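U., I forgot to send this yesterday:
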Amino acid sequence: MIRPYTPADKEELITLLKLNTPRYFDESEEQDFRVYFDQHLESYFVVEQDGQLVGCGGINYFYDERLARISWDMIHPDYQGQGVGKELTLYRINEIKKDPDMDQIVVRTTQLAYRFYEKVGFRLEKVEKDYWAPGFDLYYMTIPLK
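Result:
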């Protein structure tokens, strides 16, 4: 079940981040994730199965640029490869498509996950080495909506 995030979810999502570190995230990103919840949270969703949070991801809107950005996606390691991430990503893409002011969807990911985003329709635009942390390159990907 995909539902909106509530503040009561925060610590469980921090644990989810830690379960994906260092495979998909650098240790330094935990503080960034906490700041995201405190200062940049707009539209964020969690995936719940049998009372456990098994995934999460957000949307940030940049109306002056007419784009929405998929943000802070992660899936519990025990649930990866089972379609949870795809379901959550497609859910957010459909949420963004409801907004007529959006022309583009962006995801900023790494070399570790960009193939996943290609499978759901994102196109690679640029790569920047060691952007997130050493060994974690930026893969900037887009889906045009118009």
